[in-house]
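Please produce the structure of this protein holding uridine-5'-diphosphate.
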Amino acid sequence: MDNRKKKIVTILGARPQFIKAAVVSRALSEFSDIQEIVVHTGQHFDRNMSQLFFEQMGIPEPDYNLDIHGLPHGALTGRMMERIEEVLLAEKPDWVMVYGDTDSTLAGALAAKKLHIRVAHVEAGLRSFNEAMPEEINRVLTDRLSDLLFCPSESAVRNVHDGGCLAPGAKIVMCGDVMKDAAKKFYPHRRKADAAVQVPFILCTFHRAENVDDSETLRNLLDALEQICAIAPVVCPLHPHTRKSMETIGFVPERSPIRFIAPVGYLEMLYLLGDCSLVLTDSGGLQKEAYYMGKYCVTLRNETEWTELVDCGYNRIVGTVPAVILPTVRELFAKTPEFPVELYGDGHASELIAKTLHQTPVP
Ligand code: UDP
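Below is the modeled complex.
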């Protein structure tokens, strides 16, 4: 085996990527032959969407902070690529590691590939098969640019093969979901959120562009959530993008029966997940975390990348129409969760990722 020290540049930018990196970076640090350099693109920049996660989860401080945010997709991706390229030319890494499906992911993969630097993609192979989602475009292209594809499930592996997304010489590793590692590792350290929350309650998050950028869809969703408040209090940590969209349609969160709170840290989120009776979300991460915490999930979208949860009956896809959402919420709120099937690995995905990078020789 080649024992030369390997340099990995990790590209991070958005909240879910910080959570994934918290466990992977820790696993990488166990190998003395691996040096990790962290680049924060700045895509998420509010303290409680970014810095808080670094502090709570012990993620190494970024070596580079590019401070790029608040731009449309093209400009955001382009500027990130430009700055990431400068970092890569200076650092000359053996690998660039990217996570998930954001513009930071694609910018990192593209910048690396054009410099002939190998790309490792964590959470490869996920598909919604909805190309109207910016995330779907980012996923497909990043998979095609990657040399190592770390897939969380067998269906993700199939998607890579079926979609012809495997580049010549690239390798797939079915490792399980790194967010399962994170939930397992950090749950014992969960923290009560500052906001007073009475049980029972329904935990809700929503921020997908297709749900909040269209005013009619957003109104529908808010209408559904307000009706759900008659079943149980709805607690909703409010994503900055959603807050902005609400302002645009003149919706005042403070006047609503929905209990909107500021975005919380991961440790507070684990507390809310542990205490809630049901999860209502359009987030990819929350769908799995609901399952890891033994809660049913109602997904406010028309499709999901995490199809196994739906196949097992642990997650219901309801879209954004109140007449469909309400009866499903009523049914699952009253039902005792049972999750006999073990999905998405054994909670050691991050260790397998680190071991694979450690064992893969660099030329
Ligand atoms: N999350 C959090 N605080 C919040 C809302 C979400 O820590 O106020 C966590 C959540 O537990 C999950 C991740 O952020 O681990 C999901 O991020 P998001 O929904 O932004 O992205 P997605 O998973 O949809 O890509």
